[in-house]
Amino acid sequence: MTTERRKNHVDRHHTRVIRFGQLVMAMVGVGCGDSTTTITVTTAPFPADSTSSTSGPADTGDVTVQVFFTPTEAVQTDCTITSPVNRTVQGPDVLANTVTALLAGPTASERETGLQSWFSADTADALRSVEIVDGTAYIDFDDFRISLSAATTSCGSAIFMKQLERTIEQFPNVERTLYSFDGDVEAFYEWIQYGSPPNYSTPTPSTTS
Question: In this structure, are residues 4 and 95 in contact, taking their beta carbons and an 8 Å threshold?
């Protein structure tokens, strides 16, 4: 079987200081499924000698996707419950752009209606790369363990992981997902304390001829 590979590198032009305080949300109804925000990610050129897989719909224009956040009232009963909101992202790097939209967190109006997330404008640039190999999405983040240390509580880690999982599950060409910090898979799963890292091999980085 031919290995299909796609790697998107997100440009980072500044050092981010992630500020994290206790999440305080108004406990009101959600009703945010029709909100729309446009997200654009600048990616480095893909190596000319590699075979790429489309990280989502093969569309070079705007694509409507969903990102998932947590209703405040759900935290009192089930931290795995999520609620979708719409985002408009650019193709063809739809998966990378969707993850970046998630990392930007809820909009101000969505937070006012009761959606919460560990993600915010301060984590919007945390995506380092996305690569899909034989149905497995390898998603690498900047290391934000210290800044988001409170996300590793039992409920906090469930909120964190379910928002990622539900957002990525909408892409039919992604069967499995493996996360890492700066390329370190074990570091991510030791930090989040939510399950064990799947037994997938780390892909060899794409190279040019």
Answer: no
Which residues neighbour 24 within 8 Å (Cβ) at sequence distance 6 or greater? none
Residue with tokens 């957002």: 167
Instruction: Kindly state the DSSP code that residue 39 receives in the 8-state scheme.
Output: E
Listed in order, strand segments (DSSP E) in 37-170 are: 38-39, 62-71, 83-90, 115-116, 127-133, 136-141
pTM above 0.85, yes or no: no
Give pLDDT tens digits for 127-173: 999 999 999 999 999 998 888 877 888 888 999 999 999 999 999 99
Q: Which residue type occupies 59?
A: D
CA-wise closest residue to 67 among 94, 27, 92, 28: 94
Query: Taking a C-beta distance cutoff of 8 angstroms, is the pair 140, 126 a contact?
Result: no
d(CA 169, CA 196): 19
CA 4 to chain centre: 21
Instruction: Give the helix/strand (H/E) hosting 130.
Output: strand 127-133
Alpha helices in 80-173, H assignment, sequence order: 94-103, 108-112, 154-168
Query: Which two structure tokens, joined as six digits, stand for 68?
Result: 């998932």
Residue 76: pLDDT band with limits 50, 70, 90: confident
